[in-house]
Amino acid sequence: MNFALQNTLELLLIIGLGLLLQKKVAKQDLKGVKTIILSIALPAVIFVALLKIKLESSLIVFPLLALTFNLVMLASSKYLLNATLSKKEESKRRTVIMLIPSLAPGLSCFPFIVLYLGDDSLALAALADVGNKIFVLILLYMLAMNWYRKRSLQDAKASTSSKLKSLALSLLKEPINMVIIVGLLLLSFGLNMASLPEFLQNTIGSLKTIMTPLILLFIGMAVRLKGGEFGTIVSLLARRAGITFILSAIFVFAFPALSPALILLLVVFPQSSCSFWPFAHMSAVSSFEDNDGQKEPTFDINFAVNILACSLPFSTILIIGIFSFSEYFMNPTIILSAGVFLTTISFIPSLVSKIKRAREEKLESDNCRSYASFNATPQTSDES
User: Fold this and answer.
1) Which residues, other chains included, contact 308 with Cβ-Cβ below 8 Å and sequence gap of 6+?
2) Cβ(123)–Cβ(53) under 8 Å?
3) Membrane-spanning regions, if any (predicted)?
4) CA gyration radius, the chain
5) pTM for this one?
6) Domain extent listing, the chain
7) DSSP state of 135
8) Which of 19, 16, 13, 11 is nearest to 223 (CA)?
9) Distance from the Cα of residue 47 to its chain's centroid
10) Rounded distance between C-alpha atoms, residue 121 and residue 127, angstroms
11) Among 180, 176, 178, 201, which residue's Cα sits nearest to residue 53?
């Protein structure tokens, strides 16, 4: 059996076990599992991966590339990704602009990178995530507060300043970022994994091994899709994935000498699910608005929750599919074709909806004309 296909089946089996555990695991229990993944297992994997690379100044390009991608997607979300939503749905449009450009590679991408590409590629992905963290923690918060200030009657400058300081501290205190900082410091002094005491090496190695099965179980237990806005959200996520494929294809076309592992990394990393941090910013704005008594919210919190719920399984399936057919996704022409295809089909639901709405409006208009014409016709009397 093909190696990639065998790995994929193993991953899907563990995700399936997670689905079977859904009824036995409450939603609040999932927060504990997520904390173990993001605070212990994933930092251990990233730490081991970082200490295997050679520290070079050229590595700064990876966080810069991720930040550039975030900014390009931010512009795309403003002018293209929210085309599905009408101008009257302003809160939903702002919600889309906040969530769509963000990335959460820790839960949706890193486990598969280390499994299919190895520790070296994971280390590069972890460095790239630094640029993404700057975008989701700082730039998106500033954008959310800017919208809030414009729509609020109260001045929020003081709270914004204090919040930015707390975000900077949270950026430094986050376990993944602390591990990256410590790892880079050790590398700068010429130290590696072998330089550490043996008991520490063994402890980190043990923590590293639990990451992949734990995160796959989490994905299976966390997937709880709801109806209603499902079609709209899937079309938005498909459009996001399509534009991302196009951007990756352009980069691969521009640099044809890239290694296969680096090409796959450039394809899968931007396909990570939407980040939770923009939702945290939107929730903060919502609490401010509750205190202000503002009637029309800046963001649609329920819509944001549904996007996050759909984004993780969508990205997971997409990334597994890319790795399962990796020999095709190293070809920039196929990457570009996949991007154009996904972008095109993502407009079909909104197009069908608009046609249906236009027919309903036309039918209603015709009925109104018929009624008006009937009332305007002179009625004859049978009186003699």
Assistant:
1) 99, 273, 274, 276, 279
2) yes
3) 6-21, 33-51, 57-75, 96-117, 123-144, 175-194, 206-225, 237-255, 261-280, 301-323, 329-352
4) 25
5) 0.73
6) 3-353
7) I
8) 19
9) 23
10) 10
11) 180
- List pLDDT tens digits, range 152-187: 644 444 455 565 566 566 667 778 778 878 888 888
Residue 154: predicted pLDDT: 46
- Do 276 and 37 contact (CB within 8 A), yes or no? no
Instruction: List Cα–Cα distances, 232 to 8, 95, 228, 278, in angstroms.
Output: 28, 13, 9, 20
What's the pLDDT at 7?
A: 65
Between CA 41 and CA 34 the distance in angstroms is: 10
The residue ranges of the chain whose pLDDT is under 50 are 153-158, 383-384
Pairwise CA distance, residues 266 & 53, whole Å: 18
Cα separation, 266 vs 260, whole angstroms: 10
14 contact partners, CB below 8 Å, separation of at least 6: 213, 216, 217, 220
Burial grade of 180 (CB within 10 A; 0-12, 13-18, 19 or more)? buried
Whole-number Cα distances in Å, 248 to 224, 337, 339: 30, 11, 9
Q: How far apart are CA 128 and CA 266, in angstroms?
A: 10
Residue indicated by tokens 């608005």: 289
- 272, 280, 281: which is closest to 132 by C-alpha? 272
Residues 238 and 346: beta-carbon distance below 8 Å: yes
Amino acid 87 reads K
Name, in order, each residue with C-beta under 8 angstroms of 247's C-beta and a sequence gap of 6 or more: 69, 72, 270, 339
In terms of residues, how long is the chain? 384
Neighbours of 3 (CB within 10 A): 9
For residue 15, what are its two tokens? 């995700």
Helix runs in the chain, H state only: 3-20, 27-36, 42-50, 61-79, 90-99, 105-108, 110-116, 119-134, 140-151, 157-173, 175-188, 198-209, 211-222, 230-254, 260-268, 277-292, 301-324, 332-346, 348-376
- Say if residue 240 is exposed, middle or buried (CB neighbours under 10 Å; 0-12, 13-18, 19+): buried
